[in-house]
Write a structure and sequence with these properties.
The protein has 643 residues and is mostly helical. Helix content is 54%, strand content 5%. The chain is built from 24 helices and eight strands. The strands form three sheets. A four-stranded mixed sheet has the order 5-6-8-7, sandwiched between helices. Helix 14 crosses helix 18. The longest helix has 28 residues. The radius of gyration is 28 Å and the shape is elongated.
Length: 643
């Protein structure tokens, strides 16, 4: 956007200044408005929310609804009404503890917040922050062109990589929040490199680490690797160039803040509480089944399955089965290789940047290659000239900091490849990868079963690079005169419009929404009264079948915990449960099936059994204590009460 001269009317000059000073907020609002079409039939505070029609969303909202009704206690993140008798359910695995705690506190002031489905709001907040910090990162380079800033934020926030995590094709809100927090980490790191003594950036850096601990362990690990690798790059640069006092101050400051950030995250984990400690797995698992193509091949709990392709930022098709993303323009055009199907399970490593950013990058590389080959300068001189430009750039603090972050992002991207290398969907079983080496050195790393998620930061970096190419194009061809500036605006608008066409299918709203608290409506009013009366003064409800058996029964079990306000038994987290606790749940289930109810009464006290009509006669016939039977009318549930 060209600067207006003194002849420009005052109104337009003020509008121009306003756009420049508030561009980050304005652009974030515009793009969040576009993203809100994804939720147009269930926007926050509308009274509607997406239906609890998959087991993951049900688990996230179900845990919050039960957690919100419980009293505050320490640790802060334990759900006392689940996983009886261990209280193994936590609020840091899916429900997003930060939002859960906030609305639980608000609910004490305004009770409807205790039943508020905040996941849509969390996505909107996260999306706004992603767009905002994309602009702020671009502004570090003194780029003031509003349309270019809009394009940069669009490529990052409205990228298929992010939208796929929000859409019905995937649907984990806490992973959507990975994107803004990785952007914040990169932004604060670069800011500290430029101004290591500024207190606000120091505090911001440490607080971001604490916030990440309330959202996702993969996110915290990603930020730790990214910052740690970037810091090592700065140290290496300092050793090679014999940096002065300013560079040594930068490194010392970042080191102490990095340690402070990790300590703040550990403190946050302590406040959330109930961290399971898993037994170290056998590193030989990484060799097991490397030639298989079923879930978990390659060992390591999915390190050979939920991984990213080496060229995942350029590959438009995430998988062949399961959570398939909408077709991009690349796929509709049937571009060879780039639209080839990937392996099943690689939806975790879907990092496609979009058709428009991809074309910009390929066009730029093609032009560079053409000029480089056409140049009469000898090959050796070309290489030396390129090396000199790189070294000169690294002497500038901003470019040095950005390069360091880029190295950190690429390091994460290499870890996202998992234990078996995939190149455009083709496996190379015998190639050693960085993740394989790390898992072999530190076997507990094998608990990371979704390594493909580690590629997000690199995808965002490449998207910003595409926007930088667009800016260079505009600056070269569309900035010398007013007509050319107008053509530059049209160029940005054209790219923006094509990108919206590319991602339009991601903005489809949920196919089914419900009004109010769905978990409170599982049973009829009459059954709710019966349930509350029967469970009064009881210790727990023992579920048979167990939670996670199937979707309908899982909803029934969570509803019983919510309505009765006493704990229910069984696993609630899926992967990550302590093996000894899983065995304990299994033993309790077997006791119910064998009729050994007396064992449960001696172990826990006054419990009741919730089962279905099919299993109840067999349990009652085998029971070694008398059982009273109450059938609920609105669901296939039978309550068995020891007499």
């Amino acid at each position: 956007m060209a600067n207006p001269d003194s002849k420009t009317p005052l109104f337009f000059r003020k509008a121009h200044d306003f756009l420049l000073t508030k561009s980050a907020v304005i652009i974030a609002v515009i793009l969040t408005f576009i993203f809100s079409f994804r939720w147009r039939n269930c926007l926050p505070f509308s009274g509607f929310s997406p239906a609890l029609d998959n087991i993951d969303r049900l688990g996230m909202i179900g845990r919050y609804l039960i957690y919100a009704r419980e009293k505050f206690g320490f640790p802060l993140g334990v759900v006392h009404g689940l996983s009886f008798p261990f209280e193994a359910a936590r609020m840091d695995r899916g429900p997003i503890f930060l939002f859960a705690l906030f609305f639980k506190i608000l609910g004490r002031i305004y009770p409807p917040f205790l039943q508020f489905d905040y996941l849509v709001l969390a996505e909107l907040v996260g999306f706004f922050a992603t767009a905002y910090f994309a602009v702020r990162l671009f502004q570090l380079f003194s780029i003031r062109n509003f349309w270019v800033l809009l394009l940069a934020a669009t490529f990052v926030s409205l990228s298929p990589t992010l939208l796929f995590r929000s859409s019905e094709y995937y649907g984990y809100t806490f992973i959507v929040l990975n994107f803004p927090l990785l952007m914040m980490t990169a932004y604060s790191f670069i800011r500290l490199c430029l101004s290591p003594t500024q207190l606000k950036y120091r505090l911001f850096f440490v607080v971001v680490f604490a916030v990440m601990a309330t959202i996702d362990l993969y996110l915290l690990f990603s930020a730790t690797v990214m910052v740690g690798t970037a810091g090592l790059f700065l140290i290496l640069h300092d050793k090679i160039t014999h940096g002065g006092p300013e560079e040594k101050l930068r490194i010392r400051t970042l080191f102490f803040l990095f340690v402070a950030g990790l300590l703040s995250s550990l403190l946050t984990f302590w406040l959330i509480g109930n961290q399971n400690h898993f037994e170290t797995p056998d590193r030989n698992l990484m060799y097991r089944g490397r030639d298989a193509t079923t879930w978990g091949y390659g060992g390591g709990f999915g390190g050979g399955f939920h991984v990213a392709d080496v060229f995942s930022v350029f590959t438009a098709n995430p998988i062949t089965t399961g959570s398939t993303a909408p077709p991009s323009l690349i796929m509709r055009w049937n571009v060879p290789v780039l639209s080839e199907p990937l392996q099943p399970g690689q939806y975790e490593g879907f990092n496609f940047i979009g058709t428009v950013p991809l074309l910009l990058i390929f066009s730029f590389l093609a032009v560079l290659a053409f000029r480089w080959l056409r140049s009469p300068v000898p090959m050796g001189q070309k290489i030396l000239a390129g090396k000199k430009r790189i070294l000169d750039g690294l002497n500038q603090p901003l470019l040095l900091a950005v390069t360091a972050v880029g190295v950190g992002c690429f390091c994460l991207y290499s870890l996202s490849w998992g234990y078996i290398l995939h190149v455009f969907g083709h496996r190379f079983n015998d190639v050693t990868t960085p993740s394989f080496i790390l898992g072999y050195i530190y076997p507990k790393f094998m608990f990371s079963r979704s390594l493909g998620r580690l590629g997000f930061s690199f995808s965002m970096m490449v998207s910003l690079l595409a926007a930088a190419i667009a800016y260079r194009t505009i600056k070269t061809f569309f900035s010398s005169s007013a007509p050319r500036v107008f053509l530059g605006v049209l160029f940005c608008t054209f790219l923006f419009a094509i990108h919206l066409v590319d991602i339009a299918d991601y903005l489809k709203p949920p196919s089914k929404v419900v009004q109010g608290n769905e978990l409170a409506k599982v049973f009829s009013d009459e059954d709710i009264e019966t349930l509350k009366k029967v469970t009064q003064s009881k210790v727990a409800v023992m579920l048979e079948p167990a939670l996670l058996s199937d979707m309908p029964w899982n909803k029934i079990g969570l509803s019983i915990a919510y309505l009765s306000q006493i704990p229910v038994s069984g696993a609630t987290m899926g992967f990550g449960e302590n093996p000894s606790e899983l065995q304990h749940y299994s033993d309790d289930l077997q006791s119910i099936k064998d009729g050994d109810v007396k064992k449960l009464l001696l172990a826990y006290g006054a419990v009741i059994i919730a089962t279905n009509r099919h299993d109840s006669p067999d349990i009652m016939a085998k029971a070694n204590v008398p059982l009273a039977k109450i059938e609920l009318k609105s669901q296939d549930v039978v309550l068995l009460i020891p007499l």
